Amino acid sequence: MAAAANRVFISHLSGAAVFDPNGDQVGRVRDVVVSLRVGGRPPRVLGLVAEVVTRRRIFLPMTRVTSLESGQVLTTGVINMRRFEQRASETLVLGEMLDRRVTLAETGEQVTVLDVAMEQIRLREWEVGKVFVQRAKAGRLRRRGETLTVDWSAVTGFSLSEEGQGAANLLATFEQLRPADLANVLHHLSAKRRAEVAAALDDERLADVLEELPEDDQVEIIGKLKDERAADILEAMDPDDAADLLSELPGDDAERLLRLMEPDEAEPVRRLLSYQEDSAGGLMTTEPIVLEPDATVADALARVRMAEQKSALAAQVYVCRPPNETPTGTYLGIVHFQRLLREPPYTLIGAIVDRDLDPLPPDTPLAVITSYLATYNLVAAPVVDDADHLLGAVTVDDVLDHLLPEDWRESTVHLGDLPAEGVSGGGR
């Protein structure tokens, strides 16, 4: 992590575990807060932004950091669990400095910031001392991508706002994050940076992240994409999530995007939009695991094992007559994952179908769906129409999304018994 005993490149801090004085992990580093200063003086490092286990982001002052060694951060004193709020005078290193184009003061050459290093100047006091930059190709003697580390005073341009900043190095820093965690990162960026990161993500990754974002952020991001790409992203999303997003858009905008989608991708989304939002039809996904009764246990387990299957949907296989795409042929019943594990691989799943659970009609209200899942200890439930066609499956995560408050992604329970404000050492 450190290039010297008192120097830390900040991208290496991303995701580092944060431990309290008792040795308990309280969260992970998500960014570093600095204060820019006039006269070319190196920015002062104010503290770290840490994400605790409840996904709340808190501020950890550098005065409370005792060690930045071996990929972990050690703290002293009581940690303040108040939510971090960025002030106008503060700059986030990972969120706002990486990928920025700055100018080498000596030559006037524009370079791109790949990383920033902070250096300890005295006990628990740090400032940004070095900038790791990349040159553009210029002339035959310089290789593309040549990099160099310079003093902070050797570059200018950090205090200026910049259009088209790019996001490659920011994304590289958070490459290993789960979609939900990357969504949390995006949520805390400025609208400008959110748009730049969204533009840099590939379609599948952006689709996964959008599914985890609050609705306001989803609408903001999709609204800044070109229509053709927005349609591609909607195709990559789960149909129920795509339908939820489109339902938040003005009707004309939603219809325009639906027309740009491939017909076979748009059809299930249109079908979902025809149901009430808080009904089984409105909540369901149209892509459960469906097999015919003459499929074997081995066939079923192969489908369950597929990496793209979500856990809730992989808990059950729905047995139907052909066709296997929803709406299917006649719905016959469910085979639970645990039953598949207990049977020989050559067993036909038609012989082990659970026919005792009545499926849900598409107009089933949310309260009934919740009671159904709780009563039978299920994580998903089949949705079947009057003609016994399987339409989809309602999963517990979709139910929770509608049961929790609208701001549940930001509303968190405090970690342990630590108070939310007024504790020593953490106030800002």
From TrEMBL:
Gene Ontology cellular component terms for the protein in this record: membrane
CDD domains attached to this UniProt entry: CBS_pair_Mg_transporter
SMART domains for this protein: MgtE_N
Molecular function in Gene Ontology: magnesium ion transmembrane transporter activity
InterPro entries per UniProt: CBS_dom, CBS_dom_sf, Mg_transptr_MgtE_intracell_dom, MgtE_N_sf, MgtE_transporter, PRC_barrel-like_sf, SH3_actinomycetes
Pfam families from the UniProt entry: CBS (PF00571), MgtE_N (PF03448), SH3_actinomycetes (PF26205)
Key words of the record: CBS domain
Residue stretches making up the CBS domain: 284-352, 353-411
Record's protein name: Magnesium transporter
